[in-house]
């Protein structure tokens, strides 16, 4: 923000600062809101990995392991699956937090319209929500790692580095979806995102099986999905097979998507809230 | 800022949405301590004007300065000194009354103890102290409006913007809101409000402009406007719907400054309503009902635009 234009007369509300400190004011709004629902959200963030790691990792895994896990890199199915699910949990948290909460803030509660009448700008409001989503991603992915560790799915200390990777995977989804969700006039498009976006990605981005098992013509599509980059890097970290070159590509790809979402959101929030 | 400089200055202010011109070149100045109103029907451009003043809608053309600052360049600065009561409630209904004020106070960067102290005072002012820890959702429309007013005062604004502050409220709740606004006005808070209720404008505004189709068609104090554009008294006559048109034609002969034939009534603008009623009876016309009343802003609006405010 341009500080040169600051008027000498101090505003009664105090000096108006710039940048992220204003986004933090919006983050605090989300935290006040979250205080009412955090318990429920913790239960589901624990329950989700317990169910999947139990049913798929241990249950289905016992069958997979009997048939040999050469194609999985010679590790147990549980160790193969857990990092994939971690990245997918990032995606799932991101999609959940960046669709209805954003839409509802414009269309239902109109809390965005309330905020934009204060010193906050549309970009501050957007960034405040991105900060909140980052926090939620960190919480959910940390819980996931703890559960995975309790299941004995962690094979490498490098797996701790999978936490920021999963958070970044989430942000690669969250920022573009938020940028888009704020422009929606109806909420019907969100069901489409869940059904035709998130679920296919969840199933076909290498979360449950290596994408080399997919038909050859389909594999390039899988390589383009952000989730595959998140899954494959998290997995490489857990199995100790990370290669710096590929890791850099994965991180750069995810970061580019998250950044593009920020740029798009700065614009779409402004267009939506400054009419 | 000098004392003579207006708090808000607009010259040739325009707001366009695509090919539609919502605000079509308006001029106005607002002084500190004034209660200033934009009166007009829905779609007159009042809310668009308010949003431009609120620095959440960039003007398409013209000049606008608020507190001596430029809304495009200094929007943040200006907004930090405004209080806004929007037309539609924007409260977080899932939070409590107190939390709504806390969240809003933080938007202005106020420290927690300042927010706490002001919250107690403001909830007392809008008579919601006993609901402080209740969720907002079940509150009545009037209570929500009063809470929105309290919220808009959390930063002790220089100017309070109220966009149709009592639209959708029942009469009792409206009077409660008016009472609060009247007290603020007496404390010297500068009020800017839009309304399509002429009684609201008459009660609250020191000065107002009448807007129609994006333009300001007249301006002045309610008294001045009535004196300039209407007569001291109005005779309202209602006839049997079957005879309405015929009666209206006969009334054209009655001496009056102006005659307005509405769908259901005929209005005669005169100096002495009772005397005119006698003349009407002398013409052999017997209205179903007759009413002699003072002129209001409604009559001013009808005269200026040929339409009623509610239309």
Summarize the structure.
With 275 residues, chain A is mainly α. Helix content of chain A is 71%, strand content 0%.
Count of runs of 4 or more consecutive helical residues of chain B:
11
- The percent of residues in helical segments of chain B reads 25-40%
CATH class of the largest domain in chain B equals Alpha Beta
Largest interface: A-B, 35 and 43 residues
User: How many β-strands of chain B, per DSSP?
Assistant: 13
The largest pleated sheet of chain B is described as: 6 strands, mixed
Quaternary organization: heterodimer
Q: What is the alpha-carbon Rg of chain B in Å?
A: 22 Å
**% residues in beta strands of chain B:** 25-35%
Number of helices of chain A: 11
> Which second-level CATH architecture of the largest domain in chain B applies?
3-Layer(aba) Sandwich
How many whole angstroms does the radius of gyration of chain A measure?
20 Å
Beta strand count of chain A:
0
Q: Which H/E pattern describes the elements of chain B? A: EEEHEHEHHHEHEHEEHEHEEHEH
Tell me the strand order in the biggest sheet of chain B.
Answer: 5-6-7-3-8-9
Structural class of chain B: alpha/beta
Number of domains of chain A: 1
* CATH fourth-tier homologous superfamily of the largest domain in chain B: P-loop containing nucleotide triphosphate hydrolases
Q: Report how far apart the termini of chain A are.
A: 21 Å
Count of distinct structural domains of chain B: 2
């Amino acid at each position: 923000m341009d500080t040169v234009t600051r008027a000498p007369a101090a505003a009664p509300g105090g000096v108006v600062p710039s940048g992220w400190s204003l986004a933090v004011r919006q983050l605090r709004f989300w935290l006040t809101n979250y205080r009412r629902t955090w318990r429920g959200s913790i239960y589901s963030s624990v329950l989700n990995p317990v169910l999947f790691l139990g049913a798929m990792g241990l249950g289905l895994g016992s069958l997979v392991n009997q048939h040999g896990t050469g194609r999985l890199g010679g590790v147990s199915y549980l160790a193969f699956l857990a990092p994939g699910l971690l990245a997918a949990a990032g995606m799932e948290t991101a999609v959940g937090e960046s669709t209805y909460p954003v839409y509802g803030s414009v269309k239902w509660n109109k809390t965005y319209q309330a905020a934009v009448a204060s010193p906050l700008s549309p970009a501050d409001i957007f960034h405040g929500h991105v900060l909140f989503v980052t926090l939620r991603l960190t919480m959910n992915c940390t819980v996931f790692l703890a559960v995975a560790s309790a299941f004995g799915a962690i094979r490498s200390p490098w797996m701790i580095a999978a936490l920021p990777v999963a958070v970044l995977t989430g942000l690669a989804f969250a920022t573009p979806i938020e940028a888009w969700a704020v422009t929606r006039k109806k909420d019907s498009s969100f069901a489409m995102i869940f059904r035709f976006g998130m679920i296919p990605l969840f199933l076909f981005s290498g979360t449950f099986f290596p994408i080399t098992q997919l038909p050859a013509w389909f594999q390039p599509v899988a390589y383009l999905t952000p989730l595959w980059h998140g899954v494959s890097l998290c997995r490489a970290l857990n199995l100790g097979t990370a290669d710096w070159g590929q890791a850099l590509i994965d991180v750069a790809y995810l970061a580019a998507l998250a950044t593009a979402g920020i740029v798009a959101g700065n614009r779409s929030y402004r267009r939506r809230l400054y009419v | 800022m000098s004392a003579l400089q207006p708090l808000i200055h607009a010259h040739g202010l325009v707001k366009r949405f695509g090919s539609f011109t919502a605000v079509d070149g308006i001029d106005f100045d607002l002084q500190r301590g004034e209660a200033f109103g934009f009166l007009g029907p829905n779609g007159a451009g009042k809310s668009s004007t308010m949003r431009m003043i609120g620095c959440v809608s960039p003007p398409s053309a013209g000049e606008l300065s608020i507190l001596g600052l430029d809304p495009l360049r200094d929007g943040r600065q200006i907004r930090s000194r405004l209080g806004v009561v929007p037309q539609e409630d924007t409260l977080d209904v899932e939070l409590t009354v107190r939390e709504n004020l806390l969240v809003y106070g933080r938007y202005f960067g106020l420290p927690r103890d300042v927010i706490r102290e002001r919250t107690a005072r403001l909830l007392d002012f809008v008579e919601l102290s006993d609901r402080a820890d209740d969720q907002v959702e079940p509150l009545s429309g009037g209570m929500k409006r009063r809470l929105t007013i309290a919220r808009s005062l959390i930063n002790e604004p220089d100017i309070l913007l109220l966009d149709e502050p009592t639209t959708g409220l029942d009469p009792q709740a409206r009077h409660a809101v008016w009472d609060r606004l009247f007290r603020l006005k007496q404390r010297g808070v500068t009020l800017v409000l839009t309304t399509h209720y002429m009684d609201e404008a008459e009660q609250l505004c020191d000065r107002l402009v009448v807007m129609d189709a994006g333009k300001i068609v007249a301006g002045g104090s309610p008294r001045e406007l009535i004196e300039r554009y209407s007569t001291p008294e109005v005779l309202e006559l209602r006839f049997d719907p079957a005879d309405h048109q015929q009666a209206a034609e006969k009334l054209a002969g009655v001496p009056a400054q102006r005659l307005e034939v509405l769908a259901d009534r005929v209005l005669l603008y005169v100096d002495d309503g009772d005397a005119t009623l006698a003349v009407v009876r002398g013409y052999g016309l017997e209205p179903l009902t007759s009413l002699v009343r003072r002129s209001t802003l409604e009559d001013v609006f009808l005269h200026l635009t040929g339409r009623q405010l509610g239309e």
